[in-house]
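Why show two proteins at once? Because comparison is the fastest way to build intuition. When a single record is shown, students tend to memorize it. When two are placed side by side, the eye starts asking what differs. So, the first record is below.
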Amino acid sequence: MKVKSSAPYYFGLSLLSIIYYFFGNFPFSAYEWSTIVDIPFLLRTLDPNYLTHDFYTNSVINSPKLIYAQFVVIFIKLGFTWYNALYFLKIFFYFFKYSLLFSILIKINSVWNPKMTQTHKERIKIISLFYVIGFLSFLGGTNLQNGPGGWAAIQHLGIISPMTLSYLFGIAYLHFKFSTTKTFPIVFLMLSTLIHPAIGICIFIIELIFILPLYDKISDNKPILIEATFGVVVPMIIIFYNYQSFLSSYEYIKLYVYDRHPHHYLMSEVLDYHTLKWFGIFIISLCISIWLKEKKIILLSLLCLFWFIFPIFVQFIGTEIFYIKFIAKLGPSRFTSFISIIWGIQSLIIISKYLSKSNISIVMNSQTS
């Protein structure tokens, strides 16, 4: 049977993303709440004498966002104005975010289920398409009020910011990591972590969730150690060494968590029905995995459940029980913005395994009859 290409899906999603952007974002502008925050340090990066006595500009220039600004400056040196550079990145993000998400759903599932029939592959592509065009965003939360742990689904965001650019590099890393073609994906993980450390760590955890259950020997973990060292640890050392906060742990957490971002980081306020809903979804997925009697999928489901609970628990302990500045800076609860993507991949793996088992049963029954 001739293998059908996934190219029409990628092209269609990219085209749909651009159409959605132009019809849903009129009038067109690079000015929005995220870029307005970023513009002062971008202008200071271009001109060291820009607003040298402005308190706000001086405060943001001494932050990890400077790496994001340097990335934007690359496009300015290519001939863009700073405004056009931001707008170009916004279009760039829209063009690739859905097609890359579709790609990692397909590729990670293919690694877990390499012997799928062509019919099953097409079914998985259709389900993945349904997930990408809106179902995962709807399930994961399109705003803070209906997302788990204080965060909406990250794939639903339509802004350009350090968080979304880091996310784009992160899913590009996962795309190449789970591809059969030989590439050097660690560069994308390094960029993701440098631009936004928390997102880079989230991306690496997603890789661990879906790759560790497949390893049979400890020696198989060597590539993971290299990626962890150069893709996550080294960039984080660079960032935290160069950008230190002189506030005490209590002062920092009081300002950043309690006063500025309680809707994101104060777990005692954000845990609600939607968090319980996702806990129930992962419990159901675990029960189905046990019913399938597949050890690797059971381990996968346990990991998914653990990484849903653990970041919320650490966020709560580190900011509301003990005042740990590193925890507050890292913001582990941000990982809940990836929960719908993780469940989407997990559910595809479970569905594929069920289809494979059903197909084997049908073949065996036909042979015996």
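Second record. Ask yourself what differs from the first in the token line.
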Amino acid sequence: MVKVLLFTGFVANYGGISKVAKAYRHLEEKGLDPKIVTVSGYLSNFPKFNLKPDFVIPQGKGFEENTRNVLEGLDSCSYDVMVSFMQSTYGPKHAVQNNKRVVMVAGGLPREYTKGTAYDQEVYKKIDAYVSTCHFSWQIPEEVKAKYPGMTIKVLSQPINEKQRTNLRSLRFTSADNLNQRRQDFIKMRGSNYDGSPIVAIRMSPDYAKTKDTFLPQHEMDQVQAHLKSLGQTLSSSGQRMYLVTENEPVADVMQNAFSGNHNIEVLSVPFSPYKDSLELSAIADINIDRATRNVVQSEIAAVGGYTIVSPCPKNYMHEDITAEQAAKEGLIKHIPVGTPDIGQKVLDYLGTKHYHD
């Protein structure tokens, strides 16, 4: 039997661990026994997907220590094939050095393509493939591919198994009454009463909305904060009654401050909600507002028949701007760029339009 190692080190967000969970269970369906290896500082989302790593590598304080820890840790792991769920090359470097097959899986293409760093081009050139996941046929522009000479790039769908496929299909609403009841139940479970007002879901991982201890450089962090503040203020000034739902405290905090006493808007923060609740929110929200098009949440929203606006943020991050443009042209989403004046009203105006219902 082929020994498959799923390396998730330095990946802790919802999308990354969701991909791991789906790949893990798909491989199990195929009769394999994959092993999960991660790094000690990146365990937060494993319980949400009922996953437990088989081996945990101690996290270091910088590039050199992390490289050493990962290489030494993986020396004790027996595997034939590595699937690495990250952009950086810590794990794949071990596979390349030991003549193992390796595939890297990530939403975006590498932020860097350099030598002797966590984004080592010499490693990228020797892997079997770098897979950028997307739920539709994203056409990577040639000028983007040219930034990664020697790297084999493929665009493939998010990993999924048959049980999950069946579950996602079951969440599509069958009638207006069915959808209304599910919305009532969802809001009631969050301690409020549903009155038919729009449910607006802000889909953004907490690490993007933090103002400290984040991986984003300062200028990108400022962009995210400005976008959330503008969105909140312009939704508030519309006078529209609504439920604003977010799955993390950093986004909820920005929105609460932006609404500044507006009692027409109820902010429902459901941090660390179970996976099934995240899927239900994707299906029952009047609109999901996301910062990216190729992420796992977008693939799930599409699968359950949900409604989406994408405002790529930070700008020019992982080529999400050009992806959103293509998805909008194909009618898959509504694209409202960051910085659009009165963006909140633009969101509300979209509800009920022909494009929305199509």
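One difference worth noting in the second protein: The first strand starts at residue 4 and ends at 7.
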